[in-house]
Amino acid sequence: MATLEQRLQPAGVAIRERLLAGIPLTERRLTLAGIPTAVLEGGDGPPVILLHGPGEFAAKWVRIIPELVVTHRVIAPDLPGHGASQLTDGQLDADRVLAWLGALIAETCVSPPALVGHLLGGSIAARFAGDHSDQLSRLVLVDAMGLGRFRPAPTFALALIRFLARPTQSTSEHLWRRCTVDLDGVREEMGERWEAFEAYYLDRARTPSAKAALRTLMGQLGVPVIPAAKLAQITVPTALIWGRENIAMRLRIAEAASARYGWPLQVIDDAADDPALEQPEAFVRALLRALGETDRP
């Protein structure tokens, strides 16, 4: 089996170490549904699994992890083909990804976890919950894909196409400026952590196996709309958290899902499609409410 150093470009290994430095979680490697998987874990309390968005990795939750681990056991994997969860056989499809998530729960949780999914991770979480609500305690969908048609604003679509075709620092910045309301503010608040975050994001975007996995996951799980009948099968308590300025998966998608399925919706102001990164304090408050901790301010 390939080592981590073989699966990641040499530069990517060093960048990943910088990115994870100081995060109050430990990293371990699991094989889930035959997929070598990097998992960050830490904290005590009810288990919460965090599934990140397309082209990202578990450390994207870095701004909310320090507070969340105080009251919860946090499990944050790199999705299949993302981050350090690089495939060795190259075979990936929707069924295998959902089997991977079931194996992750069985391996890391002694009780049904709350499942939190962002964008692509949200679509994976909702699809899993449609068939396996009994394995979860709660479901939280954050700016989730799959709840409506993926029809981003033209400026977002153009920035995304240019980045995928040629992932450079310039095209990355153009895309991030459409994923956030105030990219400069995020950079200033994260400091050196942002430099590592952006460098690792670019490193993964330039890696052929990661690009192939992204195409597969988006094509089979992210972009297609989840059938209404499947969403109606979700019986676990479900909540929505959305960035008000999201121009990729617009707020009206969340509003329609909330009205149709009775799922409570919390909207984060001054945030686009990644409120956990852009407004971490507001996001944690919303997440804790979604997890049923109504005594939190």
List keywords for this structure.
about 300 residues; disordered N terminus; alpha/beta; single chain; 8-stranded mixed sheet
What does this structure look like?
The chain has 297 residues and is of the alpha/beta class. 46% of the residues lie in helices and 15% in strands. It contains 14 helices and 8 strands. It has an 8-stranded mixed sheet, sandwiched between helices. It is globular, with a radius of gyration of 17 Å. The N terminus is likely disordered.
Structure described in brief:
The protein is an alpha/beta fold and 297 residues long. The chain has helices at residues 4-7, 10-20, 65-68, 94-108, 120-132, 154-165, 169-179, 183-190, 192-205, 208-222, 228-232, 251-261, 275-278, 280-290; strands at residues 26-32, 35-42, 47-51, 73-77, 114-118, 138-142, 238-243, 265-268.
